[in-house]
Design goal:
Elements: H1 3-19, H2 21-31, H3 36-49, H4 51-54, H5 59-73, H6 76-92, H7 99-118, H8 128-140, H9 147-164, H10 188-206
Helix pairs in contact: 1-3, 1-10, 2-10, 3-5, 5-6, 6-7, 7-8, 8-9, 8-10, 9-10
The structure holds adenosine-5'-diphosphate and magnesium ion.
Length: 207
């Protein structure tokens, strides 16, 4: 893990999210207020703008600075939550561990911080329906030596989590105001999170 790899991953996430712009916008128009895609793309652009400044710093410093940038520039629930994820991840960074071990521990910690921040958990029709199962699977697979195998498994877990948001009601976020009417719609944050995870996993499968 280093600055170049971190910023390459952010760039890949940005490309994937951009390719699904209309779809994500529509999802948030259906059960939210429509700004989710704007918040996400704005955040990703802000992060990419920091590349020259941060690329040579240590990974924990990079995650922390990226989180703080999101916190101060991106609105909506997703801004605060993704900022919390990145800052949480930075706290668990341990250069003694191999990348998969390190990333698994960091991501688990980041998702735990998000749960606290959002006062939310699995099954509430949010991005956590993707992020929690992914974080748990990563911990279970952290000593696996075949990285493509891990990436392929994570892609499936993320997709299942995203699809699981479709037929449930929301108990957190704006979609909770809709009650039963939210059923039949995939959560926009779950979709954007799943796409971001898939973009990162594909880097390891294609390598
Ligand atoms: P806002 O809802 O403030 O307009 P966004 O549109 O950027 O913010 O993000 C909406 C997404 O945020 C939802 O689709 C959901 O996945 C996620 N979300 C909202 N509230 C919470 C929460 N308390 N915990 C976890 N995720 C949440
Ligand atoms: Mg919104």
């Amino acid at each position: 893990m280093n600055g170049v790899k971190i910023f390459d991953s952010i760039r890949n996430i940005e490309i994937t999210i951009n390719n699904h712009k209309e779809e994500i916008e529509k999802l948030d128009q259906e059960i939210g207020d429509g700004d989710h895609i704007f918040n996400i793309l704005r955040g990703l652009q802000e992060l990419l703008n920091l590349k020259d400044k941060l690329v040579d710093e240590t990974s924990d410093q990079i995650f922390k600075q990226l989180g703080m940038k999101i916190m101060t520039t991106v609105g909506g629930s997703s801004g605060a939550l993704f900022a919390t994820l990145l800052i949480g991840m930075s706290k668990k960074f341990n250069p003694e561990l191999n990348d998969l071990n390190n990333l698994s521990e960091m991501f688990y910690e980041g998702v735990e911080s998000m749960k606290k921040r959002g006062k939310s958990d699995i099954g509430e029709k949010t991005m956590l329906d993707v992020l929690i199962p992914v974080s748990k699977t990563l911990i279970n697979l952290k000593d696996e030596s075949n990285i493509s195998k891990v990436a392929e498994k994570i892609i499936i877990v993320a997709k299942d989590g995203m699809l699981s948001t479709k037929d449930i009601i929301a108990t957190k976020g704006r979609a909770s105001f809709l009650g039963e009417r939210a059923k039949g719609h995939i959560d926009p944050g779950a979709r954007s999170s799943q796409l971001a995870i898939e973009a990162i996993c594909n880097q390891f499968i294609n390598n």
